[in-house]
Amino acid sequence: MLDNQYFKKYLADRKVDLTKHLELDKLCTLEIEPTEFETFANAHRDEATVKWYHPRPFLNSMTNEQAINANWIGYKEHNTTESNWGLDPVHNRVLKDMVGKHNFEALGIDPERSLLRLLEYMPGNSLPLHCDGFEGFKRLYGEGDATRFFVAISDWDWGHVLQVHDNMIANWTAGDTYIVPAGVFHASANFGIAPKYTLTITGVRS
Amino acid sequence: MKLKHPISETRLNPKDAVPTEILEQYPWHWDPMKPDHTDDTHFMKNIEFDWKGLGDWAIKKCNEHLTPQKYWRFDYEQDAIYHAKENVNNMPIKEQAFMAFKNNTHNEHNSQYFKIANEEFEHWQEPLKKMFPNLKEDNMGISLFVQPPGHTMYTHVDTYSSFIRRTGDTKADYTVLRRYMAFVRDWDFGHFFHYGNHCFSQWKAGECWDLVPGVYHGSANAGMNPKITIHWSGELKDAR
Questions:
Q1: pTM to 2 decimals?
Q2: CATH number at residue B229
Q3: Which of A109, B4, B137, B150 could form a disulfide with A74 if both were Cys (CB 3.0 to 4.6 A apart)?
Q4: CA–CA–CA angle B121, B149, A176 (5° rounding)
Q5: A–B: how many Cβ contacts below 8 A?
Q6: Is the ipTM of this complex over 0.90?
């Protein structure tokens, strides 16, 4: 039924072991206005990058191998579609202004060397288990010891979840922020009835 | 991929779609931000059983045909919600399913699962039936669900459609119905299940929960292994 041998081997090769606990606490709660982000998404819907989880030529081989493994076991357009905003420099600037200087200071990153992505997952869509390749950030700012932050944009709703290694992240308040450590596998899903909005901020911490 | 419908500008309230009698008989907080809830207090027991044997057998059984029997689909021409090939517009799940599928993005491509039920359990059926002597044996239903990666079960309140179908009753008496759920395999990457405001993790095979009626719940699999759960539904013997 499910030929997941490649996916399992991929994890085994990297010694990913769910029985080993990863300590992961909430970093902080940023002061944001949730409706600003949701209004932005609705106002700029036609300019969103709409993608589903599959290999693409501008991603690195690690990311593409993960996508191939995921597609092989059934991840496709109808269950992994994401709309996002932030790759467009204008959108990135607007999102940074919405986050505000004080929040960047709280995270300890330089807004001028950071990449923001506002993500919208509609009900029924998931982001399969993966670890980040930071390709977008590296294209803009080169190699660096970047940190990926997960920021909840709306208060938690039923069916909205994130798993970071063995940590279940849910029941969040808008602004709640976690670091998703580089190389750590994570997955998320929306099995509720309302869109799930989150923000990823990638930058180098001072 | 452009949406075929606008996103609702106001928050959909799932409570609006739940049958009135369930809301009346089983009042619940209906607040996703409520921190002092008791949704995590319905753990019943650890059931000793050959869960590995059952899980492995179930996967083999699914592999015999490779086709998930169950999925949800909205038919816009008929304005009807289908659970696999059955139009369930006349079932009490209708309004909840409409909320998730009509002008929303749950669909037949992300809601599939394999189902093994009752006599299909073969030699497993009798020992499984005996696990809940408090349920009437003659109309108890047992269902095992294998949820493949990439699929979700939309958030909902149980309305016992399978029970209604099996008993032929025109309407369910929710005051006497119960559903219990056990995990068949240990928790794994990307396996999500929430019961009200409680999001499960780290579960072990055999952990059994009392899915008290009226509590909103759902599940997803964003991992790489199938997620397997088993459910008992039936009437309480001492209810009437």
A1: 0.96
A2: 2.60.120.330
A3: B150
A4: 125
A5: 172
A6: yes
